[in-house]
Amino acid sequence: MKYFNPVILFGSLLLTELASATRLPSQFFNASVPRWKWWPNPGPLANGNKGQYLNLSSGVDLWYTTFGKNSSRHTPVLLLHGGTGNSNQMYHQANKLAETRQVILQDTRGEGRSPYINFTTFHYDDFTRDAIAILDHLNISRVAVVGWSDGAITGLDLAMNYSSRIERVFTHGANPQANMSIPGLNDPIINSDTGSLDSDFATNGTTYSVHGKRGLRKREQVYDCESLSPLPGNCTAMEEAVINMWNSEPTWGPEAMAKVKCPVWIVDGDHDTSVERNQADAMAAWIPFAGQLILPHVGHAALLEDPKFFNFAVEYFLDMKFDGVLPYY
Ligand SMILES: *[C@@H]1O[C@H](CO)[C@@H](O)[C@H](O)[C@H]1NC(C)=O
Ligand SMILES: *[C@@H]1O[C@H](CO)[C@@H](O)[C@H](O)[C@H]1NC(C)=O
Ligand SMILES: *[C@@H]1O[C@H](CO)[C@@H](O)[C@H](O)[C@H]1NC(C)=O
Ligand SMILES: *[C@@H]1O[C@H](CO)[C@@H](O)[C@H](O)[C@H]1NC(C)=O
Ligand SMILES: *[C@@H]1O[C@H](CO)[C@@H](O)[C@H](O)[C@H]1NC(C)=O
Ligand SMILES: *[C@@H]1O[C@H](CO)[C@@H](O)[C@H](O)[C@H]1NC(C)=O
Ligand SMILES: *[C@@H]1O[C@H](CO)[C@@H](O)[C@H](O)[C@H]1NC(C)=O
Ligand SMILES: *[C@@H]1O[C@H](CO)[C@@H](O)[C@H](O)[C@H]1NC(C)=O
Ligand SMILES: *[C@@H]1O[C@H](CO)[C@@H](O)[C@H](O)[C@H]1NC(C)=O
C-alpha cells in the first residue's frame, strides 16, 4: 500500500523544516504539528545494518539480515517494511525484539538495498515467495510476521498461502483491495485529517472514511533507495512501478481472507489517511478470529511516530498464547 503521502503528510510543513529534521528523528518533534503528520525517518539496525544477498536464479537479488537472540521460547520474527522503503523503517521494532528473539528483515525486491533489475512489475505474490526463499535459505521453519503497509499485505499473503510457515501476523496499515471501494461506505468511523475526531452530524455521527492523494515525495535522508541501492539510477523507475502495483493489487475479498487461519491483528492508526479505516474494518471482519487495534493519535507511519506504544502492542501480540484459533488472556 501507499507509503508516501505528500499532500496529507507534509501539507503543513515547510520543506526547510523537513530538511533540518532529516537526520535525527527527535528533531522532528514539534508540538504544533500533530503526531500523525511527523513521519520520522528510518534509523539504524542494531547489528550495524549488516546484511547479505540471496541471489535468486531468476537474477533477482534480495538483501536480508538476521540478528538477535536465539531463543527456544520465542518464534523468530520476520519484519516486512513498507512500499518503496527498506528494512530500516522497522528499526524500532527490530532492535527491541532482537533483545529477546531472532529477527529477520528483508529489503523487498527492487527496493532499498535490493536492486531493481531482472524483473519489471511488482507483485505481492512475488514478495511473498521471496520471503519464503529467505526463510528456506536460513532453514527457518516458522516465523511470526510484523508487517507495515506493503509488508503487512505480504504478511497476509504469507498467512493465506504458507500456513505451516506462519505462526501469527501483526499487520499495520494493510488494505485488501487496491480500488479502495469496499465495504462499509456508511462505516461509522472517523478518519479525519483535521485532527478532530468529529463526526458528520448531517449523517447522525457517521463519517465516511477518507483517503489522501497518492504520490511520492523524496526526502533527503540516509535510508532511502538512492543511498542504499546498488542501482540508485533505477530508484525512480522502481517508485513508478510500485505505484502501478498499488493501483491494481491486492484484490482480496472475504474468500481470500478466510484462508488466513493463524492469529492476526489488523492494526491501523486512527489518523491513517493512506488507508481508509473501512479497509481495516473489512479485513478484521473477513479474517476468522482476527483482532483489531486502532492506535491513538498516529497515522500510517505509527511505527515511527509512536514506537513505544507500537512496540508494546507488537510484543503483547507476539507473547500472547493461543489455544487453537482463539486467544486466551
Ligand atoms: C512548528 O510547526 C509550526 C507549524 O508548522 C511552525 O509554525 C513552527 O515554526 C514550528 N516550530 C519549530 C520550532 O520548528
Ligand atoms: C540480471 O541482470 C544482469 C545485469 O543486467 C545480467 O547480467 C544478468 O544476466 C541478469 N540475470 C538474469 C538471470 O537474467
Ligand atoms: C548478489 O547480488 C548482489 C546485489 O546485486 C551483488 O552485488 C552480488 O555480486 C551478487 N552475488 C553473486 C554471487 O552474484
Ligand atoms: C542464532 O541466530 C543467528 C541470528 O541471530 C544465526 O545466524 C545463527 O545461525 C543461529 N544459531 C543457531 C545455532 O541457530
Ligand atoms: C495467496 O492466496 C491469495 C488468495 O487466494 C491469492 O490471490 C494469491 O495469489 C496467493 N499467493 C501466493 C504467493 O500463492
Ligand atoms: C541449512 O541447512 C542445510 C542442510 O542442513 C545446510 O547445508 C545449510 O548450510 C543451512 N543453511 C544455513 C543458513 O544455516
Ligand atoms: C438522523 O436521525 C434522525 C432521527 O432518527 C432521522 O430522522 C434522520 O433521517 C437521520 N438522518 C440521516 C441522514 O440518516
Ligand atoms: C536498471 O539498471 C540497469 C543497469 O543500469 C539497466 O540496464 C536497466 O535498464 C534499469 N532498469 C530500469 C527499469 O530502469
Ligand atoms: C474493487 O475490487 C474488488 C476486488 O478486485 C472488486 O470485487 C470490486 O468490484 C471492485 N470495486 C469497484 C468499485 O471497482
TrEMBL record:
Pfam families: Abhydrolase_1. InterPro entries: AB_hydrolase_1 (IPR000073), AB_hydrolase_fold (IPR029058). It comes from the Eukaryota. Residues 76-307 form the AB hydrolase-1 domain. Residues 1-21 form the signal peptide. Keywords: Hydrolase, Signal. One of its GO terms (molecular function) is serine hydrolase activity. This is Alpha/beta-hydrolase.
